[in-house]
Design a protein that fits this description.
- With 179 residues, this protein is α/β, with parallel strands linked by helices.
- The chain is built from 7 helices and 7 strands.
- It has 2 domains: 69 residues, no CATH class; 104 residues, 2-Layer Sandwich (Zincin-like).
- The chain has a 4-stranded mixed β-sheet. Strands 5-7-6 form a 3-stranded mixed β-sheet, with helices on one face.
- The two termini are 27 Å apart.
Length: 179
């Protein structure tokens, strides 16, 4: 249910949960409140009003984020990001292949909303998100190494994490910059 509390548009979702919680979309496009079924709407409104300063601060941060910038991108910006990423990735792949003992197949570049990269271990095809052009270079390198690790281990379980630890000990710090 869509509501407006204290001038803030909010989507209220009733769930089988114990506590009321708040989430801001990464791109700042919406505020979601999850609340137990039995909580009155007036209590949800009071919760939002109480958290108003935090909500406004987070909305402002999100609006300035790379995710929000990507949502507003023009075709020219997308082309520029593709050029940057497609120039950097082959160099990174070439540097990491001998270190990891793998060989990537075809490299593709796409504007993806929910993934930084993908890998098809059977063909070696690796696809990289062009939005990585908006992040520090170490993030692009992290995604390249991540996808190259999938040529050795398809899932994200413990063997995969051990490989990431082996080849890029600071991978979690780099990954967190993308969140």
């Amino acid at each position: 249910m869509d509501c407006v509390f204290a001038g803030i548009p909010v989507r209220v979702v009733r769930k089988r949960v114990k506590n009321t919680s708040l989430r801001i979309a990464r791109d700042g496009s919406r505020v979601d409140v999850s609340a137990p079924v039995c909580v009155p709407l007036s209590d949800i409104e009071a919760f939002v009003v109480q958290k108003r300063a935090w909500i406004e601060r987070r909305l402002a941060e999100a609006a300035a984020s790379p995710a929000a910038r990507a949502e507003r991108a023009t075709p020219d910006e997308l082309a520029e990001w593709r050029d940057v990423v497609s120039a950097c990735v082959p160099v990174l792949v070439e540097a990491w292949e001998p270190v990891m003992g793998v060989k990537a197949g075809r490299l593709d570049y796409r504007n993806m909303k929910s993934r930084w990269g993908s890998c098809q271990p059977s063909t070696g095809r690796i696809c990289i998100n062009i939005r990585l052009a908006l992040y520090p270079p170490e993030c692009l390198e992290y995604v390249v190494v991540h996808e190259l690790c999938h040529l050795l281990v398809p899932g994200h379980g413990e063997p995969f994490r051990r490989l990431m630890d082996r080849y890029m000990p600071d991978w979690k710090v780099r990954r967190d910059k993308l969140r």
